[in-house]
């Protein structure tokens, strides 16, 4: 093979100063200048950067993009409205949406802020679902059984008479298929639900007269929503659904004779001890009432994935926080209601509970026969309820019974003669 000839550029020969970059290699007919190599490399790098940049921009500006949403989302801020079925800043129930808003703001570093509006500030209490569905607000906080006229199956996601406790409801929703059914139920309305808090087993309510037998239910007008309202009516009473902000006045003026709200802590916040004397238990109608956060689906999907996750986990944390607070505060609140306000604690007579239970079976049967989605949800709910009841009979209930015997516990007001 011929050895390549090496020549020095004339200009550099004249100067007597050879330059490595001016050396050319003659290999047959091909002459390649090393002076062009850096230019070519830089051009290739520039083209690559341009292509990658265009790809990243396209990916970041798509709402359904995966990952963290790309640089287009990095500095963007979102402002949401949250409407509730409660008076603003109401202790307990009204605190939950404020807690949610605070958690979202803190976890997002201020990229997503949520402003809370109480019932009546933007929409009336019973207009929350439609407001979120229609995009008037991005989030709502309330109770699913308020929408039973529009969505019969919704009652299962708040409370079913003689149904599951808060612990059991959380188990069904998050690990028993309940949440998936909840989302399926709300999907036609463009709304995504999340568990939004529970107060545990509620009280049966405040009454302006004693209940000595099931006969005393007849003609009694009571604020009691959801499926329990239908059961109460079937047992001879008259059920009405009144927003929380109107309950006190309705009792005070005699529009209603009785009211169920929540439990000692929340009831005291409404001042119900001032308008009724008899405080009955147990809460047959709402053994573990679950509240809800509902989010407009389009608004949720418009967020980058990290903010969507923050919304989910803020709801989950608020759900637990409400139960924790109710468990801690109901104890002292009950004692205050009895000792300082003169509330008379009473247990519902057995025949009253029997009548309510029998009527609840009839009402439930009518519901599942009239609505396909209600039947589908009921079948899942009932399977889980049967299983968890069997286990809790020997675990939770077994322990509580044993503890009561060990401590010789008595409850003031259990017997009407107390």
Biggest sheet, spatial arrangement of strands:
10-9-11-8-12-14
CATH-derived topology of the domain at 76-199 and 290-323: D-Maltodextrin-Binding Protein, domain 2
Global outline: globular
Order of helices and strands: EHEEHHEHEHEHHEEEHEHEHEEHHEHHH
Strand proportion, as a percent range, falls in 5-15%
- Class from helix and strand fractions: alpha/beta
- Report the sheet with the most strands, covering strand number, pairing sense and barrel closure: 6 strands, mixed
What is the CATH top level name of the domain at 76-199 and 290-323? Alpha Beta
* Arithmetic mean pLDDT: 87
Q: How large, in whole angstroms, is the Cα Rg? A: 33 Å
Q: Uncertain segments of ≥5 residues (pLDDT<50)? A: 1-34, 54-71, 412-418
What multimeric state do the chains show? single chain
Write out the CATH superfamily name of the domain at 76-199 and 290-323.
Bacterial extracellular solute-binding protein, family 7
Percent of residues in helices comes to 40-55%
Q: What would CATH call the architecture of the domain at 76-199 and 290-323?
A: 3-Layer(aba) Sandwich
Cα separation of the termini: 119 Å
Count of helical regions = 15
**Total E-strand runs:** 14
Pfam families: DctP
Keywords: Membrane, Signal, Transmembrane, Transmembrane helix
InterPro entries: DctP_fam, TRAP_DctP_sf
Transmembrane segments: 39-56
């Amino acid at each position: 093979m011929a050895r390549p000839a090496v020549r020095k550029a004339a200009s550099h020969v004249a100067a007597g100063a050879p330059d490595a970059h001016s050396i050319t290699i003659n290999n047959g007919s091909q002459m390649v200048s090393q002076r062009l190599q850096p230019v070519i490399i830089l051009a290739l790098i520039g083209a690559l950067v341009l292509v990658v940049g265009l790809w990243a921009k396209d990916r970041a500006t798509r709402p359904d993009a995966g990952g963290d949403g790309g640089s287009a989302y990095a500095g963007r801020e979102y402002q949401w409205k949250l409407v509730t079925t409660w008076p603003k800043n109401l202790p307990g129930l009204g605190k939950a949406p404020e807690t949610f808003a605070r958690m979202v703001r803190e976890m997002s570093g201020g990229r997503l802020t949520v402003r809370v509006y109480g019932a009546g500030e933007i929409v009336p209490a019973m207009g929350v679902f439609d407001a979120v569905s229609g995009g008037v607000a991005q989030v709502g906080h309330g109770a699913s059984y308020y929408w039973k006229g529009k969505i019969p199956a919704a009652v299962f996601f708040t409370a079913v008479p003689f149904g599951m406790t808060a612990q059991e409801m959380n188990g069904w929703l998050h690990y028993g298929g309940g949440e998936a059914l909840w989302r399926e139920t709300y999907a036609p309305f463009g709304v995504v639900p999340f568990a939004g808090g529970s107060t545990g087993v509620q009280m049966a309510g405040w009454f302006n007269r004693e209940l000595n037998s099931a006969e005393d239910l007849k003609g009694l007008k009571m604020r009691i929503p959801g499926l329990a309202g239908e059961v109460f009516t079937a047992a001879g009473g008259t059920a009405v659904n009144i927003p929380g902000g109107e309950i006190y006045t309705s009792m005070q003026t005699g529009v209603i004779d009785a009211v169920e709200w929540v439990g000692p802590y929340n009831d005291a916040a409404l001042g119900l001890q001032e308008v009724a004397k008899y405080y009955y238990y147990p809460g047959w109608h709402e053994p573990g009432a679950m509240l809800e956060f509902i989010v407009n689906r389009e608004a949720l999907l418009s967020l980058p994935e990290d903010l969507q996750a923050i919304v989910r986990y803020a709801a989950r944390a608020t759900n637990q926080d409400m139960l924790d607070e109710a468990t801690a505060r109901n104890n002292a609140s009950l004692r205050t209601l009895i000792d300082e306000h003169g509330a008379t604690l009473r247990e519902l007579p057995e025949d009253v509970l029997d009548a309510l239970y029998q009527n609840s079976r009839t009402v439930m049967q009518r519901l599942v026969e009239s609505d396909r989605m209600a039947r589908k949800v009921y079948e899942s709910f009932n399977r889980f309820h049967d299983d968890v009841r069997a286990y809790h009979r020997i675990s939770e209930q077994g322990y509580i019974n044993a503890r009561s015997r060990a401590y010789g516990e008595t409850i003031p007001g259990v017997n009407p003669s107390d």
